[in-house]
Amino acid sequence: MTEKGPTPLERFINGILPENPVYRQVLGMCPTLAVTNGMKAAMTMAAAVAFVLVCANILTSLIRNLLKPHLRILVFTLTIATFVTVADRIIAAYMYDMSKQLGPYIPLIIVNCIIICRCEVCASKQNVLTAATDALGQSLGFALALASIASVREILGSGSWFGIEVMPAGWPDWVVMVLPPGAFLTLGLLLGAANWIGELAARRRTTQGVA
Amino acid sequence: MSEEQQNQTEVAPAPSLEVAPGPHLHTTKLSTRRMMADVLIALVPLVVAALAVFRMGAVMQIVVCTAAALVAEYLFTAMRGKPFSLGDGSAAVTGLILALSLPGTAPWYVGAIGSFSAIGLGKVVFGGLGQNVFNPAMVGRAFVMIAFPAAVGASAYVDTSSVVEAVTRATPLTALKQEGLPTSLADLFIGSTNGSLGETSALACLIGGLYLCIRRTASWEIPAGVIAAVAVIAGLINLTDMQAHWTVAHHILGGALLFGAFFIATDPVSSPLTPKGKWIFGAGVGALVMLLRKLSGYPEGVMFAVLIMNALVPLINRWTIPVPVGGPVPEPKS
Amino acid sequence: MKDNYLKQAWLVLLLALCFGGVLAGVEHSLKGRIDENKKADTLGQIPNLVPGAVSASFSNGVYRAVTQNGDHAGWVLLVTGQGFADKVELLLGLNADASQITGVYILDQKETPGLGNKIVEDEWRAQFAGKSTQQPLEIVKRKAEKDNEIEAVTGATISSETVKDMVNRAAADFRRQLASGGF
Amino acid sequence: MSTALQERPGAKTFARGIHPAENKELAEHQTIEVVPSPAEVLIPLLQHVGPPCTLAVKTRDEVSVGTKIAASEAFISAPIHATIDGIVGRPTVATLPNGRHVEAVPIKAGTQKNTPEEIKRDFLGGEWSTANLERFTSEQIVAAVREAGIVGQGGAGFPTSVKIALNPKKPVDTVLVNGCECEPYLTADHRLMLESPSSIITGALLTARASGADRVLIAIEDNKPDAVAAMEKAATGTPVKIVVLKTKYPMGGEKQTILSSTGRVVPTGGLPLDVGVVVVNVASASAIARAVLRNKPLTHRIVTVTGAGIRSPKNLLAPIGISYGELIEFCGGLTPDAKRIVAGGPMMGFTLGSLATPVTKGTSGITVMTSADLAKSEETACVRCGRCVDVCPLNLVPTKMALAARHHDWDLAKRYHILACMECGCCGYACPANIPLVQLIRMGKAKARE
Amino acid sequence: MSIILLAGAIMLVLAILMAWVLGWANKTFHVEVDPRVEAVNAALPGANCGGCGYVGCAEYAEAVVAGACPPDKCTVGGESCAKELAGILGVSLEQSWPFRPVIHCGAHYSDRLGRTDYKGEQSCTTANLVAGVQGCTYGCLGFGDCVSACDFDAIHIVDGLATVDYEKCVGCGACARICPRNIITMVPFKSRQMVVVTCSNNDMGKDVKAVCKVGCIGCKACERNSGGFFRVDKNLPVLDYDKYDPDNLDSIRLAVDKCPMKRLLFIGWPTEKDLEATKDMEAPDLVEADFKTTVDQTDWQG
Amino acid sequence: MEYLSTLILIALSAALINNFVLHYFVGICPFIGVSRRVDMAFGMGCAVTFVISIAALLSWLLTYYVLREGAPLTVVLTRDPTVDLSILNYIVYIFVIASSVQFVEMYVRKYFKPLYKAFGVFLPLITTNCAILFACLEIMKHVSGVSDPAQMWGVLESLVMAASGGIGFTIAIVIMAGIREELDHCDVPKVLRGAGITLITAGILALAFMGFTGVDRGLQKVLQGRDKAAESAEAPDASAQTSRNWETGI
What we know:
The complex is a heterohexamer of chains A (211), B (334), C (183), D (450), E (302) and F (250). Chain B is built from 15 helices and 1 strand; from the N terminus they run H-E-H-H-H-H-H-H-H-H-H-H-H-H-H-H.
């Protein structure tokens, strides 16, 4: 592979939509499903992931020349685990209720495929700047994905958004949406919708290209 | 050759001929549409019983669900760019079964959302009629039951202000589970109890169900398996626990068991293909129903039991591939 | 040979050492705050559970609630039990001689939203305050009439029963232990 | 009531299978007629299972009925004879209804030596003595049969000489003459049993002699009581026994006939030989008798031309190589609503793309289906109702095999034992969704074998 | 402070323990794997298309390393991939050409005789089992099994005849494998356009004429005019692509001109002349931003 | 007897009622990725169950003896009963998981060739399987998170929970694989093929599994109801002793 990879800016933009970690790469499903029954929790999770992703990418990029192939994954996971622990404690110290609500899903960021994937694919091969912008882009994409799912679930399931009532008074809450089945169904349908939109866009591109 | 061609033109008949693979004879007794019509016919006694017991509630629910199911089918098939498929009657069947599985007291949006999720999530996403893994009506019902526990849950059945006498009482299973009250067998048989619209009258379920089985639109193995499993398990419980308020007959006639066994579990699309598989499927449904009735937080378990067994159908099919007459195909010697 | 493996893994060892240290440092600086959070979670409810109490001391698994001037105001028990869906955790406030329930607070529950989770609502919980612990409470589906009756949450009999059972049992056990001079 | 029925109360049957409308009355009572010799016949050089024959005559050679025009050295093969008197034309090709594209040789008719009446007497009439058959050894019979080019006339076309020869490794104890004719519409075998029962009996005894079997059974479905009576009568005084089987499709399938009349199960992928049985069709039995006693090759065969799309259905004794079009013409032509011309019966027959297609040794009938017969032809969704499973005589799961084949999942098809399928068409008949199950399974079988 | 030390110490002890155990295990449980297999596998494009004749890229990698198969069989990876593999294996590469599918039939719907109304499964493989769908038993059936077999959208049915889009085709051979009539073969494209025989009918001219308006009648004009480059076998011309020299096509062009049925055609990528013809067409004015992807084929899917 | 019923409850809860995949959403990635074929799914399930048990055993040992507040080993070393190393929990667990996966992979590769061929390819994927870490975290919650030693999980409870979690994962993924094999032949809308339809199916499956809600409660009632009857017959006030914690249990 002699060709040069994308520039830092391209990587940043890539992460948001063209290579959205959730909708395009289908990574990091566990928090995507588990903490999206409300916007607040989802955004806290997104922030935690962003923190860990950026830190881990930067650190991995710094030590990329020292890595031995067979111990590479071990180093990644150690790094990530450390930053996750830090994030976990910070949340516990400053957002105690949120920490209780998110429960085991904060530590489970350790095994969030997005982070290991970015460490492996990008940070272990690129310089610090590239790694950092890549991480930011991916985090933003992840946050967007979480926000879209959480919006649907919170609005339908609780009639509110960020805890603020948005639906008319008589709205019967769709309890199923805040429960596990709702998470699966919402994400499944949104994935389909994302693919559909992608396809439409691609089709428009080709038809315009031909014309 | 030229002569032959002449031959051909000489005898070539006026009618337009076609070529096709065999067999060139087809049974005229059965078509997909006829099967759906059979189900609708078989549901008539249940509808009558529901109207007799629940009156306006039943009318509202049946109209809303069936109409919503047809609209949903139309919308979703249009979205997929598929030909118009209301004619096969499957959407009407789904809507009607869903309506009969809901309480008459449930508000209108429950039936509408249930029908949309039944057709959308239960059927269309899997590719339409014949390809759904789960029973669409039960997917719809499960969706609204979890979504609106207050409107479809056990407590929703009781409406103390209702003019219909049956509706003012708890459903037989709730009465048993929470208060340990038995219900008389005669009431369960005739259907003068509270419950989902279609499930109350064991008699109507039996009439419709037997019609389906005789027409072979439903495989008799499945209801037989369900009832056998329930009878055995309920019998064992009765043997070990003398204080059980419900006898075997109660368990079979009560709740949605017969409705489920004859109309829901027998949905051919989401049940196994071979007779052996059907027995396993039926027995599985029966066993799960008893497990959920006895242990879970819900008073009745037919819907969950059917959905869980639906999920297992591919595996059951896989494990019950029949051995051909004459034994399996020998491996080639090379 | 052993050195060889370790040599290969020097980076891992170094990182392990550093990370261990860093984490311990983080913990050191944040632990106080987190513990306070945890304590506040429970202690913050004490005044609501035991009238007049302002703080409590924890020993032997119960909180001994005291008033401003240090008088013994009552007890707060942390009770867990199996609810409809998952564990239910609640705080039960009793008066000083454990003869009366002074309050109930649901700390944690995952009951069905819109149905079972109504047990957290003040209105429903308020029914418990003032009930005597002499006779077990009962859940009824109509308006409560007798002294020991609690009206169930509509459509959530099981969740209501759960809370009632937890309260009954905890109160009875605690009374027995108090009587045997445990505290 | 025949004695056979009394001997075997509760005639046997097999599990599953179907009961399609028989429609045999269309041609059942039509006496066999001889088709006048056509102006030309086109004789395919491959009418059997095995390698094709090579031409033994040259263009413009003069041939007469029974002249051997093609043969093969291969063990599994059958020579081919001229079926009319005339002159050999230039070799060309013919596409047979089963899709085979084979070399064929035309013969232009000259003056015919035999009148139709003579031909009919030669095939069906006259004396068929069952006495003194011991004068023939097994080898003699097999050689005569081979020389006569007889192949299984049920359709598959397996050379009969190979089937009936003594097999030291697999001894045979029963000869089963198959007179079930379970295909709807077809009546050729039925007429043969009525009009020439003794030739069948003699052929059956000769087969038993050739294969070393000591029991001879003739299986007939109970929807042909007149044939049963005729055969009973002809069998009097011989060791031949008539077995009356319940009418059911596909009773005429080898495995089903054997199972129903002897209770033996032929293993999947095996032959009747594996259970000690030789099965010959009644037409083959008659041809065997003619080959051995009269030393005549297989040049004509009985073809039922029937169906709602034929103006006057008939049973015909036709020279092999005559075109389907001429036979149809002889029966008054097609009705305007004729839709499919099927070579063979409606269950397992193949449609014709061209009326010039020649009749072969395996052609048992022509069924013309009208648009009314085929009213239901739109494919709808499979609702997995399991009708195909309920009717499959081999206890297979046709819908799964067909769907696997449709999606090119050959492994899955194999797991469902697709190679055991005999393509009888019961599943396709019963399918309420009108899915071309048999076609898909045929494709799957071809691919799964690769 | 002591807790920091303690934590560090515990992590260190744990790390030493694990590193030691894993190091020991790595040595004790070591399994010899040819590193070249992995290298080859990494160099392959990973499309798992089966164009090489093996089940997947991994199996092909093993076969290549074992020497059972030349390194230039990967059509998707093309020349660069073959070079890379040759480099890994240290073998020299023979001159190879890109193999592309060619449809040996040139009849469109209107050219085919004896076509009937066909009811049944609409696919070539199944229709091929039914006699009389069309008169010709050799030619393209036009139901498009090859179209659905193609992962690259490079083959389409144009008026009843399968037609390859050489711009998109990568030469995986899926169409050639699925065609039930075997009328698609893989031909080495020694130049952008190759001469091919676009008929497969082995019958005599008279029989061909009865079923097709454009089929090869086996007249041998090509054999006579090309100086023996074409050889008519079973009523069809056969040409030897080993002898095919793209720079010396005079005799072939003569044969192409002389073919009465016009069944010898130049087929392949559009020539400059074709491109010239389309030059005046409007060029696409919308240019989409084309970010190179960073998602590669790593196994980090979970 | 009561201990046994506790174990049964833990097992049932982890395997069915609170299924790892369908209730806690852990292990979704392999659930979507490796559920195309039933045999592959079963291989993955077995591999996860195996590794999850090993990881659970190791992490229980480490948590109990080293990491929790007042862990015996730490106390011996520091002579300070309040020292709490639970900050190291996550990093230690992931360390243990990564190492044991690698160790198992090497071991199986060497000594069980066919087994390695069957599911060796999944082993590296397991490192990042949330289900394993989730099991460790559950154990942590029940070992270092509880103050009352009577409620603390022993090694057996931890193992049972982890193994039945793995079995629950296997059940879910095998069911899903069966359905997906079927869906290969279905006309699923193009945009939903792959992950989309898998998630929707999982959603319906989760709906169906919601039917098990409360089964643990019901079973507990049945099992302990019988225990209680037996106990009260023998020792009338035995319950006073066990009710040291106010676990009402119902």
